[in-house]
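yo, Calmodulin-lysine N-methyltransferase is done. seq:
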Amino acid sequence: MENKPAIGEGALNKVKSKSKARWEILRNAIVDKRLVGSGDITFIQSVRRFDTFELFTRKQCTCVLKPDKRSANKKKPQCSWFSYICEDIPFSKEVWIQHLFSDVNLKDILSFNNTGNVCIWPAEEVLAYYCILNIDQFHFKSVIELGGGSSSLAGICIALNAKSPKQILLTDGNKRCVESLEKTIEMNFKNKKNINISASSLLWDDVGTYQQHKNAFDFVICADCLFFDKYRQSLAETIHYVLKSSGKALIFAPRRGHTLAQFVDISCKIFSSVTESDHYCPAIINKHETEQLNNDSYDPEIHFPVLVELIK
Ligand SMILES: C[S@@+](CC[C@H](N)C(=O)[O-])C[C@H]1O[C@@H](n2cnc3c(N)ncnc32)[C@H](O)[C@@H]1O
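structure:
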C-alpha cells in the first residue's frame, strides 16, 4: 500500500480556513444572484484576501479638510490622497494617488468593470516596481497603459522617472477610472508642463475608441486584466494594433485558473514572440516566499503576478 505523508493538524486547519474563506466568497456571489464566468470566480476569490506586496510606502496626506455641514457624518473628513514612495529604489520619485473607496461590496466589484475603482491590485504594484527598476528602456519612448484602473500607478511611475518620455497615455474602459486618472495627472504633473501625458477612455472591444493609435506605441503595459473571459481575445488584438512594429508589451497577472494560459494561447497566434516568466525580479521572489511562509491568505495562484512579454 502507498504510504501517504500524514498531514499535521496545523496544516489541516490552514487548508480548512482557506477553503472556508473561498466558499464564503463564492456563496455571497451566488446569493447576489449574479452570473459570473470562471475567470470572474478566480477574481472574486482573490478580492481583499491579500492586497499588497508592500513595494511602496503609502502615507495619507495630512491636509486639514473642512467638515461638510450638510453631511450626517460628523467624523473629521480625511484627505483621500496618498503619497506612494518606493524606498527600495533610491532614485524613484514620489507619486500621489487618490483612494476612491474605503469600503466595497461584491456588487461594486462585479458591476461592469468597477474592478479598477476598488483598489490598486498587487499586479499593478508589481508592474510599477518592475518598470521603475528597468526604467532605462522607457527613456524617450511612447507608452500606453491598458486597463490602468483608477490609478495607472505604473504609467504614472514611468512618466515621473523616465527621461523625456515621448508620450504616456493612461487608459481604461470605465468612465470613473478615466476621471480619476485625469485628476491623478493633474495632481502629479501640475507644475511640469513639458510632459506629454494624458488619459482617455479605451475599450478593448471597440476599435473606434483606439483607431487613432494604430502602430503608435513602443510599449504597452497592463496589469491584472486577463481574467475577463469575454475580453481576452479583444485585449490581445488591441495590444497588437497599438504597438509599433517590434514594440513590446509587458503584462503582469496572476495565473487565476486557466485565464493567463488562455491569454498566452491567443497571443501565440498573433505575436512574433510570447514569453512567460515567474522569476523576473529577485526582490519580488523574496516577497512572494515570505508571504507563502507567513500569510495564510496568500495563494500564489490568484495573487502572484506572472510576467508575460509580447513582441509584435
Ligand atoms: C482588475 S482591474 C485592474 C486595474 C489596474 N490595472 C490594477 O491592477 O490596479 C481591471 C481593469 O480593466 C478594465 N476593463 C475591463 N474590461 C475592459 C474593456 N473591455 N475595455 C477596457 N478596459 C476594461 C476595468 O475597468 C478595470 O479598471
